[in-house]
Amino acid sequence: MLVETGLNQTVVGKRLMSATFVTDMGTAAALSILFIKPTVWIAPFIAASVFFIVVLPKLAPWFFGRYGDRVIEPEIKLVFGCLFCLMWLGSRANSHAVLPTFILGLVMSSHYARHRTEQQRLRVVAFAFLTPFFFLKGGMNVSAGALWANLGILGLLFLGKMVPKFVGVYPLARRFTAPHSAFTTLLMSTGLTFGTISSLYGLNAHIIDRAQFSLLIAVVVLSAIVPTAIAQRFFQPHAAAELERDGATSIPEAA
């Protein structure tokens, strides 16, 4: 939503994206530390993760310059080849590739900031092709009967997810993101992607059963849709006005 409205170019949008990145990193680290039951493959998985994080940012400029702008998109294949390798090794190690993948995205961010066309191509492939399959996989494991039979629990879980986020975020948002504290709080209350990842991990690792998974996914979806809809309808800043405000604020600082 921030990207489509252009708010990702504003100060408030950048703060939101940075904050969600930090919280997602914390979730990934917690999943990796608390729940993995590593096999002998954990050493190759860690080694490959470190290798890609260190080498790919250095290899990408040469590789993309040498083989980029071709119909077969070799630069995209290079990135997804690294990701699929991490996913396979992570599965073999009974771990999850999401943590090294996030770090890999972080170290590659400056490269894609300089090469916007490559970033857009990668985004098209990810959002148009891969992301729908990810959410389809999650949705196919949801039991509608379990949701209907546990509506009260669903409501309590929804409140249990939303209330602490509002209590924790709103005071800080009033201090640091005014006059957009309500907008910031509502968007920081969402967690669709990582909530789904965490729930799928718990289901695949047999930490939770299908009924519990269904309730968690429903809560994750509701907590993504409801706050975002309210934020867009009542509190969304205008990107053009925010860019103008950011520019006016930066002039005295530069002077």
What does this structure look like?
- This protein has 255 residues and is mainly α.
- 83% of the residues lie in helices and 0% in strands.
- The chain contains 12 helices and no strands.
- Helix 8 (151-176) crosses helix 9.
- It is globular, with a radius of gyration of 20 Å.
- Mean pLDDT is 82; it is low at 251-255.
What features would you highlight for this structure?
single chain; 255 residues; mainly alpha; 0% strand
Quick overview of this protein structure:
The chain is mostly helical and 255 residues long. It has helices spanning 2-5, 11-35, 42-67, 74-92, 98-114, 116-140, 144-149, 151-176, 181-188, 192-204, 210-235, 239-254.
Structural topology:
Elements: H1 2-5, H2 11-35, H3 42-67, H4 74-92, H5 98-114, H6 116-140, H7 144-149, H8 151-176, H9 181-188, H10 192-204, H11 210-235, H12 239-254
Helix pairs in contact: 2-5, 3-4, 3-5, 8-9, 8-11, 9-11, 10-11
